[in-house]
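hi got a favour to ask and not much time before my train. below you get a single protein, a line of residues and a line of whole numbers that encode the local backbone shape. could you go over both lines and see whether the tokens make sense for that sequence. a few lines back from you is plenty, here it is:
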Amino acid sequence: MAEVSLLPALRDYVEFDDESARRLQAMGPRMRPYHGRIVDRFYAAILADPRAHAVLKSEAQIVRLKVSLTQWLEELFTGPYDETYLEKRGRIGRVHVKVGLEQRYMLAAMNVVRLGLHQALLGASDDGFGAFEDHRVIDQICDIELAIMLETYREDYVLKKTAEAESLAVMGRLTAGLAHEVRNPLNAAKLQLDVLRRTADRVEDESTRRKIQRRTNVVQDELRRLSLLLDDFLNLARARRLEPVRCEVRALLEEVVELRRPEIESQGIEFIEDIDRTSSVLVAERDRLKQVVNNLITNAVEAVADRRQRTVQLVSRTLGDGSWEVAVIDNGPGISSEVAARAFESFVTTKDAGTGLGLAIVKRILDLHGGTATLTPLPEGGTRASFRIPTAP
């Protein structure tokens, strides 16, 4: 919760006094007819930005959010500007942390609202300009609102990152012991199973031999799954430091494609490659980035396993903001917006035999590279998994 002294301090700093509050409240009825126009412009700006748009999951959600923004505008002019108001407004920052909307979008969003309010005041004024004090009080309340959002965003973001760091530290300590306590007996079990399988092959009775083989196959599959789980733990714990080099992004992706295409197409899956031919350079760890791309491709391949027409598409682009984007798109059954929002957390999975660590490893590697990852359900079905990282200057 934001500090109790925050709101008085903000009011003093921007000189928002009781007269400012009365002026703002008196302005409210004149501004109300313009709220719908401000809300529409606000969401037009959100929908125009792919990364901001990514946090919106459906048209129904947008309708609900428009209603919430309209209510927010109403309360902007009604107050009272007290501690209850502070706590209520602070929830906005917390929601942004929860849905993964980056902090910078609050700055841009408030600018859209601020401009809309000033334009509304011009339209609501008899002289077409409005009183200077009315425009001033709009800036005061917008500054207060933005400061509250940023403060509560920072609080929850720090708490979230602290929890993630503590979780990874625990994971590291756990893995150190796990690698020693599990790997050795696991390898011994595999060796003994191989001996048992060779012995079974010499059993003369065919029925008995097949029974033993079926059971050893089950054990072998479970040992393989346990080994993969251990590998995931190790990969997550090891992703702590970088030893980056300059690497060409197109060559990196082509290596992944060359490795994965035969395997994917052998399963009857159409693999579509759309790699940007523009030459771009990253300062990164090649093997870890290849692991990120491989993890996303593997998830896509598993997602389409039960579909009649199966397609996995790999797309890459160098964007105008100086970042490199890679997307892996599948035509599988898709995922819910709730799962998408938590997909990069440890142990979140929709697979019956999944570890829930694959995307957590992806996120950890991208964090180290200063990148971001997004999982988006597609309206027509399927999922788009993408990531962005900065290119080298």
User: Anything to note?
Assistant: Strands lie at 245-248, 270-275, 281-284, 311-318, 323-330, 372-377, 383-390.
